Amino acid sequence: MIRIGYAPGAYDLFHVGHLNLLKQAKEHCDFLIAGVVADDVLIQHKGVKPVVPLAERLEIVRNVRYVDEAHPAFTNDKVAIWKDLRFNVMFKGDDWKGTEKGLQLERAFGELGVEIVYFPYGKITSSSALRRTLKNIDELARRVRERPSAMEPAFAF
């Protein structure tokens, strides 16, 4: 039986953590499908607007050598996605393991015969940390722009 894997993610600000996840996933299946979460789904479920638009994130992920196919995920409903793609193993970070959403996923996929494989959640780089850094840079730039110029007097007489 061919092992078809599914690795969903935002893959925003693509970094080595994403690459490692896809590499590990490919080591556990014969054919790897990456699900790239659509912009509106990401905003709705995580409250985060992606920095990189969906079309560009798809292009990046499609060109990772471990990925056999990349599909946009226009829903957060993994069972609905399974009905379309028919994978038999799904890969998630272990930050899902033991959580309510992880347990719900395990129950739903257990009934369908789909295995859930958890990988250690990497601490190397995260999109959240990159987003915070960008936000801090923006804030610093705003403060610098608002600061009085060195050529302007600091006080008036």
UniProtKB/TrEMBL annotation:
Molecular functions per Gene Ontology: nucleotidyltransferase activity
Q: Which UniProt keywords apply?
A: Nucleotidyltransferase, Transferase
Q: Which Gene3D superfamilies match?
A: HUPs
Instruction: Tell me where the transmembrane regions lie.
Output: none
The Cytidyltransferase-like domain extends over: 6-132
Keyword Lipoprotein on entry: no
Q: Which InterPro entries match?
A: Archaeal_FAD_synthase (IPR050385), Cyt_trans-like (IPR004821), Rossmann-like_a/b/a_fold (IPR014729)
Q: Which PANTHER family match?
A: FAD SYNTHASE (PTHR43793:SF1)
Its name, as the record gives it, is Adenylyltransferase/cytidyltransferase family protein
Q: What species is given as this protein's source?
A: Variovorax terrae
